[in-house]
Each structure stands twice: as structure tokens, then as C-alpha cells.
Amino acid sequence: MCGIVAFVNKRGQNVSASAYNAALQRIYHRGPDDGGIAVFSDSTTKVEIYATEDTPQAVREAGLPYTSPRDIRSVSVFEKPKVILGHRRLSIVDISPRGHQPMVSKEGRYWIVFNGEVYNYIELREELRSAGYSFHSQTDTEVILAAFDHWGENCVTRFNGMWAFFLYDTQLNQIFVSRDRSGIKPLYYYESENEVIFSSEIKAFFPLVSIRPKEEEVYSYILRGGGGLARQETEFENVFIFPPAHSLLTKQNNLGAIRATLKEYWKFKVDTDRVLNTRFDEAELRKLAGQYRDLLKDSVRLRLRSDVPLGAALSGGVDSTSLVYLTHEIYEEEKKGQLYTYTNSYNDPCLREFDESPLVHSLQKSLNLNSSFDSPNPKDFQSICFSKVELLEHLPPSPEIASYYVFKQPKKDGVKIILDGQGADELIGGYGYFWDAYIYENPLKSWREDMNVSPKRKAIMSALGITRSENLFFALKQARDQKRWRQAKALLGWNTPSYDVLTSLDNRNELTCFNIQDSMNYSLNVPFQILLWGADTNSMQFSIESRLPFLDHRLIEFLKDVPLCYKFHNGWTKYLARVAFDKKLPDEIIWRRQKRGFDDPDQYWLSQDIEGCRKWADELILSNPSWPGLNRKTLASIIQLNYDIYLRLLLFHVWK
Q1: What is the mean predicted confidence (pLDDT) over 256-263?
Q2: Of 13, 179, 393, 397, which is most buried, counting CB atoms within 10 Å of its CB?
Q3: Number of H-type helices and E-type strands within the chain
Q4: What is the pTM assigned to this prediction?
Q5: In Å, what is the CA distance from 68 to each residue of 111, 141, 326?
Q6: Is the dihedral of CA 537, 541, 543, 546 positive or negative?
Q7: Angle at which helices 472-492 and 455-464 pack, to 10 degrees?
Q8: Nearest to 122 by CA among 102, 97, 101, 93
Q9: How far is Cα 398 from Cα 375, in angstroms, rounded to an integer?
């Protein structure tokens, strides 16, 4: 995992070398092990290679075609460059100087900056060797270069991993940009008439261009949690999200509107008939459970490939414990040592239900774990809020305190990679809206048909402005939320024309789950992208690579068509996953009714003013002179009415 900054010059202007270096240093935490810059002038054959101030001496002296002892501080201006590539490296695979980036292909035609991992690079490398390619390093980066040369833009369909990369073809003056299927690795772009800039984080744009926030997105965030993500937009003008499962291939001098050039290379479609109408069969359940376990194990096996120490986040829930179990199984087969795991514990009696340490202790001996525990401290709340906003740049949904403490722990053990369970709930049915879609599409179908003739039901549907009878349940829930939304808006005293824009934005992009296809698409879209932002931010602030075995595309494609009767059964969610690890993990984990992950304690800290958290938050919010209608009484009403709005108000004031 690393960080990239790629600059495409559309008007031939000069670029400040110090500004570009500053942009790269803004994402230093993503890759503290190495840094490099390559500048391409009007002559396609000319490239200037620079070391950053912290490029290791061994890299400067390596004598490779893509390394140089020349320091970026020795030059003040890049004169009319066509393309500039910058990279920060977190050394994970082939930690020698040969893994330095920007990297060039063996024949000198293709250059790349790459963030992420292609886990099946060993298999791809052997296939490419059979086709006549040779390699000088053990990196997956070099495999990407050869794969693009051999398969063209379709190479990404062969990758199993997480990635965001920018590849420049000097011979054709062509750029190729791609982001992984699920959007695990972040990628943003700034677009104007003069330039297009791609980066792993928004903060890298600030030294290079002037960027202003968008007011309507800020309002949308505070009251509704934001709607820009569905449109691949951010809170900043001219800054957009490069969408997951998309690539861009175009001439550098023909680079127009990015959105018009994007190509979607992967999309799944749910077999709704099979998912909804299959009847439960015990033998089929056992077969599917075995297939699920085998696929997940192979996903874990691939994600254990590394030249540095690795650990796992362990919450005590079925998802993270299944990953740890499979890792232990692989370690036993390959005769490796102990696995490091990281868990949060709580001593406050009011947070005892958040404490996962007893369950983890029960696993330590049987799975040969080297487990570490940390306790979230309310005294850190203020600094966590500021660091979260600074690192993410987006207006965050929450400070994600629990994840902060999990990813803070590994550095003391020299661990640079963490296996994480993100994605399991979205794929196996761990959320309430899957239940909603299941109930209202299948078991209660006859009930819905009977209700359709009810005059009262029709009157309610008419009042709510809906036409599909199955949407009534969701519309009623939304009406309740709209009422709370309006009450919060009234308490805030916000009655400016900006809210007309806000309302139209939210209505235009409302995402609701009326059927299984919608539920699946939604679960891996807006809310999940927010979770992935958090996972990336929380890990990278400590220079830790987070790997997500549940998001192996093979597993996604398998689980999307598993009938719902095997995901929900006899009142159990994630039934397939529970059966897959039944008798392999303790019953108190597998057959646990209460859903638990890494729970955040901020609502308790704020509502009870633990260690002055609420006092600090109120004072920060009330310090904004543009909202004179706010006072402690209205804030007290807001936190009781809708805690999420209160929290977003606080984080907005940290952000601004």
C-alpha cells in the first residue's frame, strides 16, 4: 500500500517543483519508506527522475533505470511537463530498491505509480513468463506493467486484489488509470481546463491548485449524512471520486471530461429468481458452506503474501474470528509462527457490552495467537476527531474511535499488514435492510397482495406519493426519518435558500432497498464506500496496510447468488457463515445472537460528558458565529432527537 500523485498537463504550463514535492509530502504517512518523482517533457523520450528528501541512500545509489541520486530540491520549476508521476512507498513485497516507484517497464515504454496489491501476481507472472516476458524484481508492480503490455486495458479483469494506479505509455502518449472492483483503494481526481491531477488523498491537491468547499454538500452532510458519494462527488469544487471497477484509457493530449471517458470493467447482477425462490435444503446448505469456506480460505491464503510481518483485527464476531481461524489453519500447514491479533477492551462498566476481550482470550490458546489489547480513552476524543478529519479530508460519518485504537497497536510489534473483516455483512446478509427486502419480496408476498386491496393502504400510499405497494414499509420508515430531519432542521434554525438545493440533491439521489438487487447494490455502494474510506484512513495514518479477504471478487460473485434461505434461517442472520465454521469455533462466537463488531463509544462519551467530551463539543459548535440560533438548549434537544446529526455538526466544525 502506498500513495500516488499524477499530474496531467492540458495547457502546457510550468509546474512548481516545490509545490509538487509538497503535494507528495502531504501523503507521506501512506508511504514513509521511500519516495520518487518522474517528469515527462514534450519529448516523449525524455524523462527526469528525482529522489525526494527522504529517499533511502540505497535507492539513490541502486543504478536502476528508474532511480536517481538527483534530489527534487535541486530544481525549482518543471518546464511545460506533459505528465508528472509521484509516489510514496510502504514497502510490503520485495522491499529492496527494485520495488522503487515510479517504475518503468523493462523496454522503457511504460511508467507506473501504483497503490495497493495484486495478490495473484505470482500466478500472473508465471503466465507472462510463458508468453516471453522476463522480470528483474519480485514485485506485483512489474507484473502490472507486463500485463498491460500483453493484455491491454483488459488486464485488470485478471487481477485479484486492491489497486489504484496511473500508467503512462510514453510511446503512444497515452494514460491508463484504474481502480479496483470494490473501491478498497482510494483515488480522487481534480479536473480543470489546465490540468487533471490524480491522487490517493484530496490533501495532495492543495499545494498545486486552489480548491473551495461546496456549501450544498456540507448542508447535506450535516442533516442527511451526505449524498455526494452516490454521484462520485466530494465536498470540494472540481474534486471527484474515481469510481470503483472503472478504468480510463486515453491520449494525454486528448484528455477531456473524465466521466465521459470512464469504462466500467466489472459489474455483478443478482440472479433474483434463484436468490428468492430456492427452497431450503440441508444437503445444499452443507455444500454451499464448504464452498464458501474454501473460497474464503484461498482468499486469505493470497492475502498472506508478504515480505513483512502480518496481523489481524479481532473483534470476537463471526467474521474476524473466521479469518483468524483460517489464517491459523494456513500457518499450521505452512509451519509458520504465531499470528498477531489486535482487539479493544473496555473497563468502564457502562461499556462492558462493547468489550470483546473475554471471547478473544478464549481463542488465544487454541489458535496460537499473540494477542494485544487496548482501551479507548475519552481523553483522546478531541485529538482523534481532529486527526480523522485531517487525514480523510471528507466530512466523516464518525470519528471511528474503535478502529483508531485497533490500528494504533500493530506498530509496536513491527507489523505492517492487518487482515480486516470489512465486507462480510454486505455479502452474507448482516444488515437489517436485507431482512426488509427478504420479508417483503418473499415470505409475505401473499400478505402484500391481500393488503393491496385495502382502501386504507391505498390512501396511505397516495398520501406518501408511492405507486409500488411493496414500498410502503420503506416509505413509512422514511417518513419517520423525514420528520426527525425536519425537527432537527427547525432546531438548527436553518431556513435559507440553500436548503432548496439540499432537498433536491437528496431526493434525486435517495437510495432505498426495495428488492434484493437494490439491497445488494446498495450494500456495496454508498455505505460500504464510507466504511472503506474509514478502513483506509484508520490504517494508513499509522502506515499500516489493511487487507480485506471478504472482498475477493470470486467470493463476491459466489455469494451474490446464494439463495437467501441459506443466509437467513430460523431467525439467524449470516446462517451460511455460521454453519461453515460450526464446531471449528466456539459456540459463543458462532451462535451469538447479538451482532458485534468494533463498537464506537463516542455516543456514551458525549451524552454523559465523560472527561469533558460534551463540554468541548458544545463549545466548538457554538463558536460558529454564522449560526446564532444555536445554544446549549437546542444542542441538548438535537443530541436527544438525532445523535448522528449532533455528531456530524461536531465533525463539521472540526473540518471547517
Answers
A1: 80
A2: 179
A3: 28, 20
A4: 0.88
A5: 15, 19, 43
A6: negative
A7: 40
A8: 93
A9: 18
